[in-house]
Design brief:
Layout (H helix, E strand, L loop, with lengths): L13 H4 L4 H12 L4 H4 L4 E6 L11 H14 L3 E6 L13 H17 L4 E6 L4 H12 L3 E5 L6 E3 L2 E3 L3 H11 L5 H8 L14 H11 L15 H20 L3 H4 L2 H14 L4 H12 L6 H8 L16 H6 L2 H8 L16 H5 L24 E5 L2 E7 L10 E9 L2 H7 L12 E4 L20 H5 L6 E4 L11 E2 L20 E5 L4 E4 L3 H10 L11 H8 L30
Parallel strand pairs: 1-2, 1-3, 3-4, 9-10, 10-11, 11-12
Antiparallel strand pairs: 5-6, 7-8, 9-13, 13-14
The chain binds FE2/S2 (inorganic) cluster.
FE2/S2 (inorganic) cluster binds next to loops.
Length: 581
């Protein structure tokens, strides 16, 4: 339903600038202090440019320029831009994991938008958790919002070989450990793998989540695929600034176009991209922020019918730069036209179908046709069983096929430090048939559910030529990783989930086709172990860590804080945003 256009008096910012009282005098006089006159802002949409730029975030190093380009668009369209720096989540630097701070960023974004005189928001992110963190906060606030994706960096290059972020790091680290490359060669990879601004250019969490944001309708069409340093990226930044001003007048908010169907579109797109398993946690959290219900089972249902078409590492061969030249996300979605709901609305006011109508595939080695998919279906699988009553996930295309049905004895590590200390011990009784188990790496236990899920293969097995094994944890895995890694086991071991009860030598059965993960130990014995189990000591005594340990939800529920979730939409009217005075 089309809404009536807003009048200047109906702008949210009017409450700060437009009324004639003492507090508004203060707002206007302090804006004048910054060199603006009333004609710069009075009666105009005030737009927050929510910027995750920082000198510690290489993926966003172009964001100072992009913010200026967004401002240019906002001024041209008759808006008033205000840049708002928020916490950056820099994947390579932040310990123990950016995931611990995703909800922190979401809270900051929501409160910044609530407490200042903003009518609309441009969200600038891209590096892994920045996309969900920014969007979660904006969904809760529900102002007109548009997303500016950082764009992927250029392909890596080393000795004439193309390198992909993360994926080739793991690959050559294993080659180094196995003695296949020299230390000198390893050093020179270091300087060639990240060559420009922009997020990781493999199909890691960043590319997956910026593409998911586009599939949800939150970016200008085609934007998420444009490399960060391409001049078209700057052009789209300016167009994004122009568009948000119009969205404010139209009062087009996330709640106007986020539906169960738009989340299905995002999941289908992620599956066709061979996207990161992290997106499962983030999309569930985002849907719940939008007052929608999304469960793990919906991912499994859609995976059974969705082919993997993007031939991008780690599941495939190419990188995001190639994907853009091959037609980008619009071309991929056009190839999926019968599997997505093309009637869903997007931020440019058009439907998904209208946005992808003219899209074409220019290189079908990179974006495969439906007649020639990279993988026919099952880009990911949701596992259940006595080891993961609330679910776990695995990415079948990223594992060696012979492990899809596997039974082996467990080798258990009680936490990350235990694993780091013993995994390469030549005396460790491990064989290629063993199942490596890491405990206490979940949302509360690690804390923050770090990307430790690609558990290392013991050095002695690597030297013997083993490149994949069944590995199980309650951690996540980087989207750039690969292997037979069972992830997100819920409930996690730190809170007493069955993963905490596994002991060395227990047999574990993985059956991907049956979607089953079983600990082959009798119920009586498991009950005995459970009765003897004692909860580990809490990790934190003060600060943000306490907030996390008291309130973070398990992976199957998206790892949001319980008090930040939105009520289902039908109850939302009674809990509306309180009026600010
Ligand atoms: Fe920023 Fe990978 S390090 S996206």
């Amino acid at each position: 339903m089309t809404k009536a256009r807003k009048t200047p008096e109906q702008l949210r910012s009017h409450r700060w600038y437009g009324v004639d009282d003492l507090r508004s005098f203060g707002h206007r006089s302090r804006t004048a202090q910054m060199g603006y006159t009333a004609s710069d802002y009075m009666g105009k949409p005030v737009i927050a440019i929510v910027n995750t730029w920082s000198e510690i975030n290489p993926c966003h190093s172009h964001f100072k320029e992009r913010a200026e380009e967004v401002k240019r668009g906002i001024w041209q369209a008759g808006g008033f831009p205000v840049e708002m720096p928020v916490m950056t989540l820099s994947e390579p630097f932040q310990k123990p994991t950016t995931m611990l701070y995703r909800n922190f960023l979401a809270m900051e974004v929501e409160e910044v938008l609530r407490s200042y005189p903003f009518d609309g928001a441009v969200l600038m992110g891209g590096c892994d958790k920045t996309t969900p963190g920014l969007l979660m906060g904006a969904f809760s606030m529900d102002l007109p919002t548009i997303y500016l994706p950082a764009g992927p960096m250029l392909r890596g290059n080393w000795n004439g070989r193309v390198l992909g972020s993360g994926t080739d790091t793991w690959k050559y680290a294993a080659e180094l450990k196995a003695g296949k490359i020299t230390n000198m060669e390893w050093k020179s990879i270091e300087t060639g793998i990240a060559r420009s601004a922009g997020h990781c250019m493999t199909m890691g969490t960043a590319s997956t989540m910026t593409s998911a944001a586009e599939a949800l309708g939150l970016t200008l069409p085609g934007f998420s695929s444009i490399p960060a340093v391409d001049s078209r990226h700057a052009q789209y930044a300016s167009l994004t600034g122009k568009r948000i001003v119009e969205m404010v007048w139209e009062d087009l908010k996330p709640s106007d176009f986020l539906t169960d169907k738009s989340f299905d579109n995002a999941i289908t797109t992620v599956l066709a991209l061979g996207g990161s398993t992290n997106s499962i946690v983030h999309l569930i959290a985002l849907a719940r922020r939008a007052g929608l219900t999304l469960t793990l089972d919906r991912f499994d249902e859609l995976a059974r019918r969705t082919p993997v078409l993007a031939n991008i590492r780690p599941a495939g061969e190419f990188l995001m730069e190639d994907f853009y030249y091959a037609g980008g996300l619009s071309a991929l979605m056009a190839e999926l036209e019968d599997l997505v709901d093309t009637t869903q609305r997007t931020v440019n006011g058009m439907s998904v179908g209208e946005n992808i109508r003219d899209a074409q595939i220019y290189n079908d080695a990179v974006i495969r046709r439906r007649s020639n998919p990279l993988v026919e279906h099952d880009g990911l699988a949701v596992l259940r069983g006595n080891l993961a009553p609330d679910g776990a996930v695995i990415k079948p295309p990223a594992m060696e096929s012979h492990l899809k049905l596997h039974t082996g004895p467990a080798i258990v590590f009680r936490d990350y430090n235990d694993m780091a200390a013993r995994i390469d011990d030549p005396k460790l009784p491990v064989t290629a048939e063993s199942v490596i188990v890491l405990q206490n790496a979940g949302p509360v236990g690690a804390p923050g559910m770090p990307e430790w899920g690609q558990l290392p293969i013991p050095e002695k097995l690597l030297k013997a030529g083993v490149r994949d094994m069944v590995r199980i944890s309650d951690a996540r895995m980087s989207g750039t990783s690969y292997g037979a890694c069972v992830l997100h086991v819920s409930p996690e071991s730190f809170v007493g989930g069955p993963l905490a009860l596994v002991r060395d030598g227990d047999l574990i059965e993985l059956d991907v086709a049956a979607r089953r993960l079983s600990l082959l130990v009798s119920e009586e014995e498991l009950a005995r172990r459970k009765a003897a189990w004692t909860a580990p000591k809490p990790r934190f005594a003060r600060g943000y860590g306490v907030l996390n340990q008291l309130h973070v939800l398990q992976a199957d529920k998206g790892c949001d804080f319980d008090f930040l979730e939105e009520p289902p939409r039908e109850q939302a009217a009674s809990t509306a945003d309180p009026e600010i005075h």
